[in-house]
TrEMBL record:
The chain crosses the membrane at residues 13-31. It is found in: Cell surface. This is Competence protein ComG. The lineage of its organism: Bacteria, Bacillati, Bacillota, Bacilli, Bacillales. InterPro entries: ComGE-like (IPR053468), N_methyl_site (IPR012902). NCBIfam families: T4P_ComGE (NF041013).
Amino acid sequence: MCKKCNGFTLVEAVFALALLLVVTAALLPLLTQMMLERENIALKAKAQRILDAALYEENIWQETTIVEGRTTFVIHSGYEENNIWKVCVRWNDYAGRRAERCGYVKR
């Protein structure tokens, strides 16, 4: 064998690839969870836009359903005491959790 070889041996290259594989396998679930939460934040923003539109509409009564993509938003509305109109938007996010946003307007 040569005494002053420059470069990597096969063992060093295999060890580096194995280390890269372990780090990737450890970070993959975290990356998947981050992507899922990013999509859930986008759903929350859609629900807020629907809620804002519903608060200024006067013809939404009782229950209305809006389907956007894979998600179904259900709008509930009704009057509470002191002439305050309550509007709530409910949906199931991509993690299977039920979410709700509510808004109030004095009429």
